């Protein structure tokens, strides 16, 4: 359930990971594997893209099978909810006054749409602006 380390450093460039049509269905959630990372790509109810770690940090459930709701993905096993930045926003089984969820975060990567392509940035450096992307 852990990420496989990439064999080469990721390029300092936006990388095409999907077509916009891949998220056009009723449930805009797909698995993505890129540069040694197993991820889930989704479009939330506000139309924003999220690219976060595919497996829930609690019990390793595949978030691709999670419920797409409340501008994020809810784990199908215990219901932990993650927003498009990878931040856990809810843990239903925790006591009402618990704030443990604030310390839980999935890996996430910058993601954007350019025309009919969905692009992600995997390099450790700050993402280039799309104007800097060459065809």
Please sum up the structure shown:
With 135 residues, this protein is mainly β.
Helices and strands, with pairings:
Blueprint: E1 14-19, E2 29-34, E3 37-43, E4 49-53, E5 67-69, E6 72-74, E7 81-83, E8 88-90, E9 111-114, E10 117-121
Antiparallel strand pairs: 1-10, 2-3, 3-4, 5-6, 6-7, 7-8, 9-10
Structure, described:
This protein is mostly beta strands. It has a single domain, classed as 3-layer Sandwich (Rieske Iron-sulfur Protein), CATH 2.102.10. Helix content is 0%, strand content 33%. The protein is built from no helices and ten strands. It has strands spanning 14-19, 29-34, 37-43, 49-53, 67-69, 72-74, 81-83, 88-90, 111-114, 117-121. Strands 5-6-7-8 form a four-stranded antiparallel beta sheet, with no helix packed on it. The termini are far apart.
How much is the radius of gyration in Å?
Answer: 15 Å
The major β-sheet equals: 4 strands, antiparallel
CATH topology: Rieske Iron-sulfur Protein
Low-confidence stretches: none
Query: Number of domains in the coordinates?
Result: 1
Strand content: 25-35%
Known CATH architecture: 3-layer Sandwich
Strand order of the largest sheet: 5-6-7-8
Shape: globular
Order of helices and strands: EEEEEEEEEE
Count of helical regions: 0
Number of strands: 10
Average pLDDT confidence is: 89
User: For the record, what CATH class applies?
Assistant: Mainly Beta
What helical percentage do the residues reach? under 10%
Top keywords for this entry?
135 residues; mainly beta; Rieske Iron-sulfur Protein; four-stranded antiparallel beta sheet; three-stranded antiparallel beta sheet; 10 strands
